[in-house]
Structure formats: structure tokens, C-alpha cells
Design a protein that fits this description.
Number of strands of chain A: 2
CATH superfamily of chain A: Winged helix-like DNA-binding domain superfamily/Winged helix DNA-binding domain
Structural class of chain A: mainly alpha
Number of domains of chain A: 1
Shape of chain A: globular
Oligomer: homodimer
Helix content of chain A: 55-70%
Radius of gyration of chain A: 15 Å
Largest interface: A-B, 32 and 32 residues
Largest sheet of chain A: 2 strands, antiparallel
Chain lengths: 104, 104
DNA sequence: GTTGGTAGTCATGTTTTTTTGACTAATTGA
DNA sequence: TCAATTAGTCAAAAAAACATGACTACCAAC
């Protein structure tokens, strides 16, 4: 742990950080669903055919750590947890829309 | 090989395709270098410390297949190969710049 | 004809990512 | 109290991505 190359690499290629934060098998789809409103753990499992608890949990945790999603405990019945786009997440929407315009 | 889910998934999340085409350990950096002009195989190996032939070759091939880079044989001395941003690649620059604005 | 530069491929091994299935724990409704 | 729903965790296996080292092939200079 001398110098941190991650910072050096991101300095030489700033897009790399964001790309990584949105990359992975489930993150793009989770982001997209979050555009329409708060998402929930079990809801995502149902909405993402082929997904699984572990992968969705990991994606949510990493997107929360990357400050793309905000986790909230909703004090209602039934008590549950919501993931909402953060301010940064909302700022990323235009970039996301830009990517959507490239229909391969 | 019944229905192609890749298309279905990309239909439900169009950003996913582009994200995948730019994701990976070396593609973002290669894209960034290509912004400054044509890039070459051995040049990239030198410019990307820690990279290797196999990974760079794979990244170039996939970016060419994704129509982000165009491969050209340059009939000069020494005879060599150049990879240049395609029209689509150039269209992606604004999205890339957008990502760069998120300095994590 | 040997060295050095061009641009790779191939087989193998390592590392990272993703999946699977079992398990936990709190809350809610009947 | 029992069953379902909430939201996960954990260990292990499978799959995908990445790295290593050897090798190929062409061209030009010495």
C-alpha cells in the first residue's frame, strides 16, 4: 500500500470510475428501474428474471457505496427498505440517456 | 437458441449495450487515448503500464466489433495498423465527457 | 542471416465476478 | 402460534475476465 494506482488511473481516465460504478450484470437494469421511482430488494428479484439474492444485494450495496442510490428504512406497514436515486444518481441520468441513444 | 435474451435485455435497458462495449479493464483507457488520434497495438502496450498483448488485442477486437474503432492497414514504412475512432465512436465522445465530469 | 520492430495467436493459469443453496432474523396477519 | 413476507448473509461452486509466457509471421536494416 504505497501509492494508490486507482487514483492515478482515474486521474488519467476519469470516465473509468463512473463506468465501473454502473458496470456489472445487474446494475444498469437496477439503475433504469430506479428511474421510475424507489426500488426494493424483493421487488428487484421479481423484476429481474435470472437474478438472485446475492447479486442483487451486492449491486445495491455497491451502488449505495458509490452514492448512486440512497437506502431508506420506510416506517410504514409493512416496514420496508427503499432504494432511491441520490442527487448524484439523478445527475447521472443524462449520461445514462445519452448511452440509451446508441441502440446497437 | 430460441429467442435472443440479449436483445430483450437491451430492449428493456438500452444503456446496457454501450456500457458493456466500453467496460473492462483497458477499454476506457484505450478509448481515451484514441480521442487524441489513431492508436496502435504496440503503442498501447507501452502507454498502458500493466497491460499485456492478449488483453489489448482482445479489447481492440471487441471495440472494432462494436464499431467503436476502425482498423486500418497503413501502407507506409514501416507498414503498420492503426485504430481510429469510428463515426459511432466519435458520437460517443459526448457521453464519455459526461462520465468524466463525475470525478468520484 | 541475424537482430529488431511490426502485430498478433495460443494454451494455460490466476483472479474476479456471478450463481447456487442453505441459513438468519425481524415483522405481520390469521 | 404458525405461515408468509420483509431483507438480507454465508460458504462454496461455476463462469467469465484477465494475465503469463511461448510462439508465429512479416518486413527492414545491418
Amino acid at each position: 500500500m504505497t501509492t494508490n494506482n486507482l487514483h492515478q488511473e482515474e486521474a488519467s481516465c476519469p470516465a473509468e470510475g463512473i463506468l465501473k460504478q454502473l458496470s456489472g450484470k445487474w446494475k444498469p437494469q437496477i439503475f433504469r428501474l430506479a428511474l421510475d421511482g424507489p426500488v426494493r430488494f424483493n421487488g428487484l428479484l421479481r423484476q429481474l428474471p435470472g437474478s438472485n439474492k446475492q447479486s442483487v444485494a451486492t449491486a445495491l450495496k455497491e451502488m449505495e457505496e458509490a452514492d448512486i442510490l440512497v437506502k431508506t428504512v420506510v416506517q410504514e406497514k409493512p416496514l420496508h427498505i427503499e432504494y432511491t436515486l441520490s442527487e448524484k444518481g439523478r445527475a447521472m441520468v443524462s449520461v445514462f440517456r445519452g448511452m440509451e441513444s446508441f441502440l446497437t
